[in-house]
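Hi support team,

I'm opening this ticket because the web form for multi-chain structure prediction keeps timing out on my end. I have pasted the exact lines I submitted so you can reproduce it. The total is 785 residues across two entries, so I didn't expect it to be a heavy job. Is there a limit I'm missing, or should I split the entries? Thanks in advance, R.K.
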Amino acid sequence: MLKAVLGRRGAQGPLPPPGTRFRPLSFEVPKPLFPVAGVPMIQHHIEACAQVMGNSLGFYQARWALTGSWGLGGSYQSSFGGSGLPGFRYLQEFAPLGTGGSIFPEPDPAGVPKPSCLKDVCSDFPLGAMLEAHRRQPHPFLLLGTTANRTQSLNYGCIVENPETHEVLHYVEKPSTFVSDIINCGIYLFSPEALKPLRDVFQRNQQDRQLDGSSGSWPGAGTIRLEQDVFTALSGQGQIYVHLTDGIWSQIKSAGSALYASRLYLNRYQVTHPERLAELAPGGPCIRGNVYIHPTAKVASSAVLGPNVSIGEGVTVGEGVRLRESIVLHGATLQEHTCVLHSIVGWGSTVGRWARVEGTPNDPNPNDPRARMDSESLFRDGKLLPAITILGCRVRIPAEVLILNSIVLPHKELSRSFTNQIIL
Amino acid sequence: MKALILVGGYGTRLRPLTLSTPKPLVDFCNKPILLHQVEALVKKAGVNHVILAVSYMSEMLEKEMKEQELRLGIRISMSHEQEPLGTAGPLALARELLTENSDPFFVLNSDIICDFPFAAMVQFHRHHGQEGTIVVTKVEEPSKYGVVVSEADTGRIHRFVEKPQVFVSNKINAGMYIFSPSVLQRIQLQPTSIEKEIFPVMAKEGQLYAMELPGFWMDIGQPKDFLTGMCLFLQSLRQTQPERLCSGPGIVGNVLVDPSARIGQNCSIGPNVSLGPDVVVEDGVCIKRCTVLRGAHIRSHSWLDSCIVGWSSRVGQWVRMENVTVLGEDVIVGDELYLNGASVLPHKSIGESVPEPRIIM
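Hello R.K., no limit was hit. The queue was backed up. Here is the completed structure from your submission:
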């Protein structure tokens, strides 16, 4: 009997609520529900867990309940219902518990290793291989690790392993100098033995922070920071091991990385879900490379789509439209002859005829196999960096204009071209 | 009558077009710039001898002028300056040709386009009976130019003021003159500016008169003004010869299309577009305020505004070009690119967008 916990990363310290780096898209939908390669980001996790478990799955979610119109509970249970997919339930934090807090309150299941994933990663989730490794040699904590180049490793949790045994000898979160090119993927396999050290940390933190008298401020008494409080503390004690993967992996922090993750997932569909990929069909649009088209979308036959294009529910794509490296969300309309490149078109937005919506990709250096998405700050030296173009919800772009490297906030009606701007 | 046209040098201001073709032969609204003037001179003033003052020799120009001599039944001479002679020196160089008889003769800057008033100029010149007539045109912002101050009723010129800071006049020299042969006594065979060195003296002596030009006028020596001139010219065609303009579905406003050009379905062409011979515009293309020269090919769903597309150039699908982008001859623009104010030299293949104005060598 396996259980999985999907936790959200983020809310480290006094940061704004989750998903702010995902604005303006996260105004409309919680980030985990943002569609990547045609399905909510978190569905990729659920499907991966379901493959190895076929049983219960916990969601761990801070503050936002994923209920109501966007609710996962209802829609997922129904969409997975009867198909042998896991049952799942929510755990909601009532105060931020840190990245490890989600694991702790789970009642001990007897002898069950528990996969845990942070939601804002994109991966091929080699959970089967991790379980296999665990069966061969059980350890309380098994972390999924991958490689990054020296510079970029500083943005991640860095793991130093014993190359013979893969024991984690040293763990440090976002070091300021180079420590290791093995980074933490945010995908873990915990055995029930892991809960004891977690409980110890929990209790110790509570005591320490009550002594400090700082329980009102973050980190609160109930928090467990998995990386700092557990991995760093327990490394080199024969409890934490790393399983290395060279499969696909990327963080999904910003909208730009969602586009990159979408490319990775669409590519993976060739193996996992070929039925989700659009095919050339008589009377249908021209498809180049991997493209997802929702069955309810109306796409004109003279449109040319791909590679890496996802067309959402109820989208209208007019005659002679060109789409490449883009996500078009629910209900958007692209009128005739528009050209959309490296962009995300928000829910219900309209792009007029002959308009051009274009962004600049910030993909990892294709010539460096260890390169990851770069840190995704919007500005450098006070200037907006060229990045993908994002149209928020219900934005209207008039005919014939150019929107280049810009972010347009929701419900905006533009009347002219914009380049390198955030349009409030 | 004779006419001297100041063709001058390499036409660098109109590069990259003039890297392939001498400026007088660049098509403006589907006719070489020079022929607009020459044909008007022949038709309106009965000019039978045109002298081209050139500072470099071009086989292409000579060959073309030979053909035009035959076609128009006139004489066309080349007067070749070995060193730059300014705007007056070429008159001295062509002295012999200009003084073959005692008729007054025209002198024209080659870069200007207007509804050439050559018959009226002859009449005006004979009426005042003095040495020179210059055509003036009204401008909105005279402080950017040298202006001409003249008597309202007779047109006699009092003086010239360079870039006036306070308003003295809104009339500027339009680059078209008519002179009696005696003016040649004022000009030495050396680099001389007719505007700065000759005209002020003539004005002082009461020998220079200004004739006001009705209608449009533009110096089309640079791409930006070339396009503005095209708009003015097409609007003038709309009033004078509307039958030469194109109409039909997908045609918006004043559009000039050579009969051999082909336009696809669902296009929007115009306003202010001229398509040259053998141009191909595929389906779903939008073109505004552009000149497309002979043999160019615009592929489907592209959008062009304020561009000059050079001879035999090829623009890919879903290309956006704007802001006085000029493609030289035989340029290839890849699919889905954006060119903003690019100036592309001939025979170049473009594979990356040009988001800010620059020259592509």
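A quick check on our side: Residues 2-6+20-210+221-251 of chain A form a domain with the Spore Coat Polysaccharide Biosynthesis Protein SpsA; Chain A fold (CATH 3.90.550.10). Let us know if the file doesn't open in your viewer.
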